[in-house]
Design a protein that fits this description.
By secondary structure, the protein is α+β, with helices and mostly antiparallel strands. It folds into 2 domains: 7-322, Sandwich (Jelly Rolls), CATH 2.60.120; 333-423, Endonuclease I-creI, CATH 3.10.28. It contains 7 helices and 21 strands. The protein has helices spanning 64-67, 171-187, 195-198, 222-228, 302-306, 352-367, 374-383; strands at 9-10, 37-40, 44-49, 78-84, 96-106, 112-117, 135-142, 145-147, 156-157, 161-166, 237-238, 241-243, 254-258, 266-272, 282-287, 290-299, 320-322, 333-339, 387-392, 400-406, 434-435. Strand 7 and strand 8 (145-147) form a beta hairpin. Helix 6 packs across helix 7. The longest helix has 17 residues, at 171-187. The radius of gyration is 22 Å and the shape is globular. One of its GO terms (molecular function) is hydrolase activity, acting on carbon-nitrogen (but not peptide) bonds, in linear amides. InterPro entries: FmdA_AmdA (IPR004304), FormamaseFmdA (IPR054833). This is Formamidase.
């Protein structure tokens, strides 16, 4: 039976920057980043973490901190943690590491978070062509509930979860990542028609020493320079798990992670109080500082036993996730549909990304009829417990995606009625979310059939 209470601590001081932490943080994946702690199978151990920006986003009423943030440097991870069995034998490549989330929450005394969009010139988001300016909303926590002075009229329970849980890649796997992402960058937008519709940029974030944090490895040494030029960014989820942003991985969940290096070198970070499916504004959950109480098991040889490679090597596998029993309960939902026809009216073939973009845009425009600005609706759909689905993927030519919003999170009835939109008390338009001006030159999109631009 597990010992009561954490046996290992990986602590965080929220008043200190990532490089100043007593237990060093890292923001890259590399097999040679050394562990900062060791935990044994069956032990419950506590990991604390700063928000994804390393504490760089403030509670100040300004969006400038997010306008100039670099989203491709961030995700400061706590760890790596070496995992051993009861005999002290470490997890081995080919094993399956089972990570159970026993408990989690915001750090005591730091019960707040934020949701934001990055500037179009600096990463943007899913709808960056519609919403090019940096925005920010601050949320405060009351037990399990969140509310924001910047998005009034909503209150909802958080499904708290870590955005990132992953193991270290082997050098072979790291080389696979870097090569395929390098090809994507070199081929450019012209090779991928979807980029003309979703406007994501950059297409991938390749290794760079800029802003690199490598835990115990001392900056300026030859070892640091070598690893910094090889280590993968933490932005996308990959074969090792990583930034999967699965909102349902809360208390009682289990993550079955492939092991690629001795000891597994487990890392976690990017704590979210709440998130909607897709995290559409990119900085889109309620980002916060928090803690995780974890317990691990090792399934020897579990990769070959349970994970089937979907690629040219045995390393092309993906984790398995077991959802815990603790989730908010909602009985009534308003569901918005999208099909794979873009804003210009162009038909795409079974494209679920275009369909989901349409569903999100439809939901934003609808909520704006009830007193919300479109920026408020965009941030809300990124962090409230809404649910996204691929509802149809075989009926050519239209893929169909849906976005379901729980109606109980609003203090007004947002369902359509014969009496039309209510004219009684409504959400005031001020205060709005915190905004910056957009000063760049990248193209933006206007919905030609809408009464107002986004």
């Amino acid at each position: 039976m597990a010992q009561y209470g954490p046996t290992v601590m990986v602590p965080i001081d929220v008043k200190k920057k990532p490089r100043e932490q007593k237990v060093p943080l890292h923001n890259r994946w590399h097999p040679d980043i050394p562990p900062v702690a060791e935990a044994a199978v069956g032990d419950v151990f506590r990991v604390e973490m700063v928000d994804f920006s390393g504490g760089g986003i403030t509670k100040e009423y300004s969006a400038n901190d997010i306008k100039f943030a670099d989203p491709f440097i961030v995700h400061y991870l706590s760890g790596p943690i070496r995992i051993v069995d009861k005999d002290g034998i470490p997890a081995k490549p080919g094993d399956l590491l089972v990570v159970e989330i026993c408990n989690l929450g915001p750090l005591p005394g730091d019960e707040w978070g934020f949701t934001a969009t990055f500037d179009r010139e600096n990463g943007g988001g899913f709808l960056t062509d519609h919403f090019p300016a940096a925005t920010k909303a601050i949320w405060y926590f009351e037990g399990i509930y969140a509310y924001s002075p910047h998005i009034p009229g909503v209150r909802f329970p958080g499904l708290t979860h870590p955005g990132i849980v992953g193991t270290a890649p082997s050098m072979e796997l790291l080389n696979i990542w870097n090569e395929r992402e390098r090809q994507l960058v070199e081929n450019g937008v012209e090779s991928l028609k979807l980029c003309e519709v979703v406007h994501q940029r950059p297409m991938a974030s390749l290794p760079t020493p800029k802003g690199c944090v490598l835990g115990k490895i001392q900056e300026g040494t030859p070892e640091w320079e070598k690893i910094a030029r090889e280590a993968a960014r933490t932005i996308p989820g990959r074969e090792n798990g990583g930034n999967c942003d699965i909102k349902n991985l809360s208390r009682g969940s289990k993550i079955y992670l492939p092991v690629f290096v001795e000891g597994a070198n487990l890392s976690t970070g990017d704590m979210h109080f709440s998130q909607g499916d897709g995290e559409v504004s990119f900085c889109g959950a309620i980002e916060m500082s928090g803690f995780l109480d974890l317990k691990c098991e090792i399934i020897r040889g579990g990769m070959k036993e349970y994970l089937t490679p979907m690629g040219p090597t045995p390393l092309h596998v993906n984790p398995i996730f077991e959802i815990g029993p603790v989730e908010p309960r909602f009985s009534e939902w308003l569901v918005f549909e999208g099909i794979s026809v873009d804003e210009s009216g162009r038909q795409h073939y079974l494209d679920a990304t275009v369909a989901y973009k349409r569903a999100v845009l439809n939901a934003i425009d609808y909520l704006s009829k009830f007193g919300y600005s479109k920026e408020q609706a965009y941030l809300l759909l990124s962090c409230c417990p809404c649910e996204g689905r691929i509802s149809g993927i075989v009926d050519a030519p239209n893929a169909m995606a849906t976005l379901a919003i729980p109606t109980a999170i609003f203090d007004q009835d947002i369902r359509p009625k014969a009496s039309k939109v209510p004219i009684g008390p409504r959400v005031v338009r001020k205060p709005d979310v915190l905004k910056c001006s957009y000063d760049g030159n990248l193209p933006t999109t206007t919905n030609l059939s809408s009464s107002s631009t986004s």
